[in-house]
Amino acid sequence: MNSVVDAIAVSISAMLVIASQTTPARVPAGADNLLPNASFERVTQNVPAGWESRAWLDSEENARWDVDPAGRTGQCVTIRSGSPDGADAAWTASISCKPNTLYRLSGWIRTKDVQGATGALLNIQNMQSVRTPALRGTRDWTRVSTLFRTGESPSRLEINCLFGGWGRSTGQAWYDDVAVEPVDPEESTGVTVTIDTDAEPRTYSPMIFGGFIEHFHHQVYGGLFDPGSPLSDENGFRKDVIEAMKELKLSVVRWPGGCFVSGYHWLEGVGENRKPSDDMAWGVRDPNSFGTNEFRSGRTKFVNSFGGMNPVNEFSDEFR
Ligand SMILES: [Ca+2]
Question: What would the CATH number be for the domain defined by 27-187?
Answer without folding.
Answer: 2.60.120.260
